[in-house]
């Protein structure tokens, strides 16, 4: 069996002792001692409150923490559920930790969770981030119930965010997946996800887990793979998402290289699915009551954003000449020459840039890492424009602008196909 190649004997013995389960919740960790107890307790409360009769297990693949995170997972227990829920667990909540190689990243953690789901014959699974400060027991119901009761194959999250949060998702990843794959998913890289045990087995069988793009951003591969395979998707509203402060410190260059590198590689490997597609994007059902609440504001150094955009365009022009068409690059340089308000980076130009970068990545016109790095200053210019435009916008206006951007991506889809399929 393939699982034997990467699961430790001790881990398999622990799984065997548990037997079969109905629900599996995974929490990949690496030095998350500060928040892990709260996360594990929320999971346990959610399982007892909403799934009291089901057989459940919590799986914790850890990347080699040295701050006591796995010990905290193993020792985290709620002594008296009745004081919190007015009921007690009917079954044991099993908690199993194991380790994975830090070099392979979180893709290895995802693979371990799916292998455990396969061996335990789990019917429904959920994975949550270990650094959450806003998780509640209701998140577990929101991620598990659509799979367990409504027979969905995959549940993606919807968060209540500050209007400047999730810029990369809103300006590139979500609208590209909508236009290219034809499915409107609001949060394709949320970190929290629900999926069926059947889908976990299907993912596990794929010979992709050695690929860097799958290890770097497994969620994007999983979602696009699920869409291409015709799986039944839905979304669940989870409310505000607040990470521990140190958790969101990755720089934007690395984030763009990992997230967009994975997205463009998925488009390559799944082009037989999306290139012939002509249907308009379809909505995905949403579970849960959406509400607004106070969220931590996201702030940008606008002066620095503009300066880095203008300097980047000036310094990288020879590189951009090999990625963008002459017409597009001329428009970018015109935008870079604006200064202060009313600065504007229009949707039409931004979508054209993203599609030309995707096609140039596909054709490997230059080193792919360097290519994605060259997108960073243009992204900063786009974000500077979005921040200026949305200063006084309310949530309804923000949503309307998001829809208009998605429509622009759909409108220019033939331009992507033309550039993607051209002969080098």
Protein model, in words:
The protein has 424 residues and is α/β, with parallel strands linked by helices. It contains 19 helices and ten strands. The protein has helices at 9-18, 33-50, 69-75, 82-85, 106-120, 137-148, 167-181, 197-205, 212-216, 218-228, 252-269, 271-274, 302-315, 317-321, 326-336, 347-362, 368-389, 395-411, 413-421, and strands at residues 23-26, 56-62, 93-99, 124-127, 154-160, 183-184, 193-196, 233-240, 282-283, 286-287. The strands form two sheets. The protein has an eight-stranded mixed beta sheet with strand order 3-2-1-4-7-5-8-10, sandwiched between helices. It has a two-stranded parallel sheet with strand order 6-9. Helix 2 (33-50) crosses helix 6 and helix 16 runs parallel beside helix 19. The two termini are 42 Å apart. The relative contact order is 0.11.
User: Roughly how many Å is the radius of gyration?
Assistant: 22 Å
Rough shape? globular
Total helical segments = 19
Name the structural class.
alpha/beta
What do the pLDDT scores average to? Answer: 91
Q: Could you estimate the helical fraction of the residues in percent?
A: 40-55%
Order of strands in the sheet with the most strands?
Answer: 3-2-1-4-7-5-8-10
Order of helices and strands: HEHEHHEHEHEHEEHHHEHHEEHHHHHHH
Number of strands: 10
Beta-strand residue percentage: 5-15%
Q: Alpha-carbon distance between the termini?
A: 42 Å
| Unreliable segments of 5+ consecutive residues | none
Query: Sheet with the most strands?
Result: 8 strands, mixed
